[in-house]
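Reproducibility note. Readers wishing to regenerate the assembly model reported in the main text can use the exact inputs given here. Chain order matters: entities are listed in the order in which they were concatenated for prediction.
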Amino acid sequence: MSDFLISSFTIAGIYALMALGLNLQAGWSGLLNFGHIAFAGLGAYATGIVIQAGGSGWTGALVGVGLAMALGWAVARLGRQLGSDYWGIATLAIAEILRTVATNEGWLTGGAQGISAIPSLFDGLPRPWNAVAFLALVLAVVAVAALALRRVANGRFGRALRLMREEPQLAACMGYDLKSLKTRAIMAGAAVTALAGSLYAHYMSFAGPDYMVASETFLIWTMVMIGGLGNTAGVLVGVLLVQAAYSAVPFAKDFFGFGSDLAGALRLGLIGLILLACLLWRSEGLIPEKLRKIPA
Amino acid sequence: MTAVSAPLLQVRSVAKAFGGNRVLEDVSFQVEPGEIVGLLGPNGSGKSTLLNLVTGFERIDQGEVRFEDRRIDRLPAHRIVDRALGRTFQLPSMPTKMSVIEVAMAAATAHHGFLDTLLGTRGARDAEVRARVEADALLKEFLLTPVRDLPSSALSGGQKKLLGIVCALMGKPRLLMLDEPTAGVHPNLRNDIVQALKRLNAQGMTIVIVEHDMHFIREVCSRCIVLDRGHIVASCRPDELSSNERVLQAYLGGGRAAAESEKVPA
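Running the prediction on these inputs yields the following structure tokens for the assembly.
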């Protein structure tokens, strides 16, 4: 049971990082990134490939973050001529292209089999302490990322992002370069998300094309929307809630005695239901974005 | 005006068309330092387009725009603001999730990047304090202190216009361009705007105002430029407007007889 809880929280923590990255882009900057999972995929693959080539996990994570930021830069530049919704479709397409490349370039990525035998961190520790140590690492990274991103959002840079999200024209006439703001927001979100991908590769000892399916992006979107777009605490609550629903399904399966394929469908159905309920009754999420207090 | 100082703003032979619709043709004028210039004309005469062209929100097709004797007509809007040319919008809309003070602070000149904000560098912290002090001072001057902590979208139309002026002033402009600052504004508030603009001008601010309200123009402006169907038809003192045939033509489509029955300032 404790193994199960540790595993659930570890995965929740990794998703929390991705959700925080998406919140920086979608929540504060209003950018409809539907290809977010590509950044995590780059982090996971870079870790796998670098380690396979004899590099260290740190190098892998750094390479992943660097590649994701480069992709973020390119995606943001691509968006210059497109309206925000069309740009969203383009991001989805780019993530799908990357997934297809990962599936087919077997010499680099192991193709559909992916890259296995990525060493998990803390292998030297006895069970279950290795898992506990990994969980602690993930939670520490989440805490640092959450605090740092909240600080950015409340400060001058975040203020510019939030103004751009709602009133781009006003932001432009205050002297903000909107293209540059968008680019930096996407790159920062990409970096955090690639780190999550790298951690995931270590945790699963594996990196494969399934990490990059589009439904993963929408799962992250669901977490952010249920919790509260634009609110760091809300995003974390949304991640926990969705992860709890995911983790509860196996128990329901045992209790009611239905099959595995039904359990999988039930998972997705449950998430859909929660999202629908949120959209109907709490369209801004469980913990909506608040006005920031600025004392005189 | 004065031959000593160069014009602050020069617009030379500017033309702009949207599709086949030629909105501005061969428009030239200049604004001297210290002036308050009224830009008027009937609906569709091209006033707002002219303002958008000068501030970089639209590209000109022909001609050139110079500010402080440097060409600005190829610069993007945000670069023109950096040259100290501020503007407001005719229908200002304000963000729902930001308070009035936050919007004003966002308009402060010193922009900081991701890392400055994240690390809270000394420069970033100092700039933040300065922005807050300046924003509070301007909000007070424009009577917005009571609504300081409300969502900026909750302000009335008139208050939003005031906040728009506050934002423009946060950028410390040397030329301020206002798009209909008093349209739809309550008379009391309108008076406050008049006083505020006169005060700013007394401190040396050059102002260009797009406006319909003749009384406002007469009260505030030192000179008027009248546009009609994309052409400048007059450039004169406000008190000369009513005796200018071409202005009457533009506004009333008729001659003197019509003018006497209408509300044109005498």
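We highlight two features of this model. The beta strands of chain B are 9-18, 21-31, 36-40, 62-67, 70-71, 85-87, 175-179, 206-210, 223-228, 231-236. Chain B has a mean pLDDT of 88.
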